[in-house]
User: What shape does this take?
Amino acid sequence: MFGPCVHLYVYLNYGMHWGANAVCGEIGEGVGVLLRAIEPVAGIDLMRQARHYPAKNREIGSGPGRLTQAMGITGELNGADLVGNDHGISIVSDGTPPPQEPEVGRRIGIRHTTEKPWRWHVPAHPHVSHWRRHRRQPG
Assistant: This one.
C-alpha cells in the first residue's frame, strides 16, 4: 500500500479472504482504492466456477472477498503493475463514463473513521453490496 502508484496491494483480510487495493498515492503515503465489487461481463463461467457456482450473477463479485476469489487474485499478485500488465492483471477502461453523481457513504467493515464518507459507487447498481446501501450525502 505504501509502494508506487498504479500497483496492486493484495493482503489477507481476517486471515480468510484476499483483499485488493489499487495504490494511488505517492511512495510512502499509503493511499489506495479498495476493489470492492465487479460486474462480470466476460469470463463469467470461469468466475462462477472459481466462486463455487453462486446462485446469482450478482453474487460473483459483490464484495471484496468475492471479487478476489472470482478473479483469482491472491498474494502472488501483490505489487502487480496495473498499467503495465506485468502479472497478467490490469485496470483498463471499457469506455463507460463514471456516474455524474456517484453515491457516497460511510465505509463498511471498519471500526475507526466510520464517519468519513469514503465509499463511492454507482447509485442503484445491482452488483454493489446492497445489504448496507447508504444514502447520498452532500459534499
